[in-house]
Amino acid sequence: MGVRLRAVGRSASAYPAAVSSARLLALASAGSEAAAGVATPRAASAGSGVSRHRGQHVFWRLEKPAGGALFLLGSLHFGDDRLYPLPAAIEAAYQSCATVILETDLRLTQLPAFAVLMQRKAEWPPGQSLADALEAADLEAFRGQARRLGLEPSWLERYRAWYCANQLLSLALRQSGVDSSRGIDRVFCGRCQADGKAIEAFESPEFQIDLFAGLSDASGAALLRESLAEIAHVRGFVEAMLTAYLAGDLAALEELVTTSFDRSPELRERFLTSRNASWQAALTARAGSCPGDDLVVVGTGHLLGAHGLVASLRQAGFAVTRL
User: Fold this and answer.
1) Is there a domain that residue 9 lies in?
2) pLDDT at 78 over 50
3) The model scores a pTM over 0.90
């Protein structure tokens, strides 16, 4: 898209509570499709593979006992053109793989049925609205922010707070210069379709919707309040995330993504811990039974930290090397 974000001069520690931003940028991929009127992505390619990056990447190789490798690539679900072309090591891994494994099948999230399902799960019963879940001050703050972003709040108030939070934050991210069509997982999904490679997924799109729809009304309201507070700083958060990602700065990425959940143990369990455990089991089984190379592309937050997939797979006895 050619948009460049303004450098804001803040360190990762300036965004310690950015759970909502981290969730959309580097965790649940279906959340990035939450904005009203999701646009069809323009054609995107990972490019020639000539790296503009220095140092190691957010990228690992796991040696399969069955033979071959599992390549683990951290994704940002929103991105801009600075992410491309991808480093040569990632391009070479993609070319060697017959199968790419995503969090969810992003071909399905582009179908009208996905938006219909999300709205159905988010819609309040007749006679209820967002006003029933928010304090008066929070409701006014929501209405003001929606209008500033160019949305009509009365339309959104038919839906629960988690949906409204995703709507506002997704739009704020796009207005800051990043878009889900330039997210790394979306680019690889498109390339797989063009190149005839198989796409597999850990979770169904409905499962990812239910990560949000299963929140209590109180938790959803808290998520919306947090999103409203984050929107004012979203440009800086995006810049910090992209800068850390391009530099391969795992410590900064971990601080931006995973430590943002320190004050939200329920959300950490829901969006990170339980899903990582399920994915590790699936990857362990695949590594032992499916020879050949596979590329796994999941939100960066799932790979980092003591409980991330890289650490847990090493603890399970696999040889995992950063590339």
Assistant:
1) no
2) yes
3) no
